[in-house]
Amino acid sequence: MLLYLTSTENVGLFDFLTEELGMLVKKLSGEFSLNRFVVHDMRNLSHFSYIAIDLEAIKDDADEIIEAIIAFKTLYDSRIIIFAEKADISLINKIIEETETYNIITAKNIEKIKEEIRICVSPQGMSKEYLLKSMNTSMDINIEQIPQYSFIGENIKIIVAGAMNRVGTTTIAMNMASYLASIGGKVSYTEANGNNHLEKIHSYFFSNIPISNNYFSQDEVDYFFNSNIPADNYNFNIIDIGVLNQRNLKAFGIGEVKILCSGIKPYELPQLKDALNILNKEDVFIVLNEGETQSIKKSLPIDGERIYSSKYTSDLFNKNINIEIWESILSAYIVEHKTL
Questions:
Q1: What does residue 225 show for φ and ψ, rounded to 5 degrees?
Q2: How far, in Å, CA of 68 to CA of 24, rounded?
Q3: Residue 27: which residues within 8 A CB-CB, separation 6 or more?
Q4: Which of 47, 58, 148, 339 has its CA 20 to 30 A from that of 292?
Q5: What is the pTM of this model?
């Protein structure tokens, strides 16, 4: 279901989704304070999967819009989509930079607008790379106005393992892949464990995308089955080896970047400590599930600066969450260029 806050001018913009996808579209037309809506009205409408906002219907100033979007993303799991056909480029830049929101429609003609809407409601949403290209075309701007990234090294292997089952290892690995692709990296994800999650993910989300040479591509990430690690032409190879054990310890060791995921419940911490006992503690990063971790950091035999607390998401392709963790862990391999 999609809720659309719309100006009278653009009231029918999302209606085609009902015919194409069978999606229920509820419209609220008029003029809105986005801040007030998020704080007072949205709590009664949080069952909507998508919240679309026509900036022409919003009376807040730029800072208030930013504050409202940040509050929205903190409080709700719904995906926010922004229709910004007539918005000033400085406001769009501000939204991108300060809220890490990329589902932004900037096209001018109706067919292109519909194409961008379809991308925004797709399972993976709009990537930052796609948004920047779209803005460059539709808004006649220089894409270099927005931060760009370059990458140091090639085929950097990022090995992701779990201290035990069901601690979010695959979600962490795929979220990182989505983020790196969204900033322009050439990224592969390899399922190198016996879980066969990738086959189920492809069947459920991407059955219309063909599998060729034991991989499929989606939203600028190449997903490889059966422990196949591509040999070249990538900035990053993310390899999900599942639960760490003696059998895959050697595979864990091949990574330039090694990430161990763990829960923080009392019955999960002994598994984490057991895993650390068989690792070189000086070159591993720990990503813990969301929660209070200060006391846990003190109890672990590893530098606390290499331990991170991740925010929870059930979205495997969430490229906007835990960005500060990825930037810190991969700081040796990513260079940001700002030309504003």
A1: -90, 165
A2: 25
A3: 3, 4, 6, 11, 14
A4: 47
A5: 0.62
